[in-house]
Inverse folding.
């Protein structure tokens, strides 16, 4: 049982390049989330998927797109990376019927130059 | 009104001392208040959580104190140990939110000095 996995762990992009961050969970969780974490700003929600087939914007969605490929996988895409998107990105999931605990992946550290 | 304000931003405590981190909120509809612990290079993990029908919850050396009238809640770490050095986040949510969204504080970096 791997929990929540994220790939890659580290990535450096040039301004304007695109990439997709991958997230998968093997806990049969319903809802999945993408956050970014910046120093002194806590965790800010980018997008979430309440259930398979649905996605919604969070607090800071601009510059990002998401896909809930199936119940296990939720990907985050940067179409044209900007230096302001330099951050640590976390994916999380929750088993809705089980309560509120969000399980986090290990994060992806992204640098945009 | 959706904000959760956390203080202090950083905290240094001697080994064996009590670490106290505070959070305040405005939205009285919040009814779930968790604390998450994050070690460097890792994702946050749930430490302890409380609902507003109780004023205190204790799990081992970790205690949440909740003051509904003041709209404040705090994390107390008794007998703090170097292994407790981490970043701590408070958060809040509303049970009827179908997306189970959490509103996060900005985090407190705790350092326990040996």
């Amino acid at each position: 049982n791997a929990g929540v996995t994220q790939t890659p762990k580290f990535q450096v992009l040039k301004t304007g390049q695109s990439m997709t961050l991958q997230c998968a969970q093997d806990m049969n969780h319903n809802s999945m989330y993408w956050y970014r974490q910046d120093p002194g700003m806590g965790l800010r929600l980018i997008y979430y998927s309440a259930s398979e087939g649905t996605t919604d914007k969070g607090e800071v969605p601009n510059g990002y797109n998401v896909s809930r490929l199936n119940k296990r996988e939720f990907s985050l895409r940067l179409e044209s990376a900007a230096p302001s998107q330099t951050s640590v990105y976390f994916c999380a999931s929750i088993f809705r019927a089980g309560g509120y605990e969000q399980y986090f992946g290990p994060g992806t550290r992204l640098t945009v130059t | 009104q959706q904000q959760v304000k956390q203080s202090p931003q950083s905290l240094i405590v001697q080994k064996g001392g009590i670490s106290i981190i505070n959070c305040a909120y405005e939205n009285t509809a919040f009814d779930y208040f968790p604390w998450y612990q994050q070690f460097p290079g890792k994702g946050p993990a749930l430490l302890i959580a409380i609902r507003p029908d109780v004023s205190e919850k204790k799990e081992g050396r970790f205690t949440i104190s909740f003051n509904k009238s003041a709209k404040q809640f705090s994390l107390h770490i008794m007998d703090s140990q170097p292994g407790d050095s981490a970043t701590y986040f408070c958060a809040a949510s509303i049970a009827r939110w179908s997306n189970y969204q959490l509103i996060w504080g900005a985090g407190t970096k705790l350092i326990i000095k040996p």
